[in-house]
User: What shape does this take?
Amino acid sequence: MMDDSVAKAREAIRDARSIAVLTGAGISAESGIPTFRDAMTGLWARFRPEDLATPEAFQRDPRTVWDWYAARRAQAADALPNAGHRALAALEEACAARGAEFILVTQNVDGLHHASGSRNVVELHGSIRRVKCFDNGHPASSWDPDGAPPRCLACGAMLRPDVVWFGEVLPGGALDAALRAAAKCDVLLSVGTSGLVEPAASLAFAALEAGAAVIEVNPAATPLTPHVTLALRGAAGEILPRLVV
Ligand code: APR
Assistant: This one.
């Protein structure tokens, strides 16, 4: 049954002229980075997003928010890409070799796709490895490590992580690129995402509407599962290497 679905997925990927991949926190779980919504272990099972991941929370308590993201930044810096990340980098190479299009759209802010050699990556929710100032968006390449939060050298405003918080708009270019890819691809691979957060959650449906095959890789069912072409039940690090030819 599973082998059959994996074989079908591999064939669809091998024959595709245009592949789009959407990843979520699940692909980094095997690198030791907690997901957001997995019971008990997920970040939102332990912390309240409204206390840590909104501009209002930052204005209310900048120190706590800065420290929380600093801890997550250190965790991401220590983490290594896993077999799932590496398989997607290899798939991008295989597509390039046969002239097929490939784009990787991620909701993750950990930078592990780049670290594993992926190149055509769209970071929909920004990156925890980047910092900018709260008032004017000035990028900061260095900051006072004792500042909590440190201040922008250009305007003196508080620095914040360059990630998209709840209630904030996504980077325009990133969302446009993701929507274009979803509308154009032959195959969309949805990997390690609960499909609960918009607008990322709409990308697979946009691909289905455009006639693409959607393949979901996740150990658990999601709201997307009843709609997909193939649902591959398991961990990204185990399944993705079996899909790359
Ligand atoms: N391989 C594949 N999928 C996995 C694995 C694994 N090893 N482990 C867990 N998963 C799945 C879970 O079953 C779940 O469906 O990954 C999914 C993780 O879901 P979430 O924690 O909701 O993460 P995500 O979908 O990326 O969240 C979207 O929400 O909090 C915001 O901005 C944050 O980008 C994030 C967005």
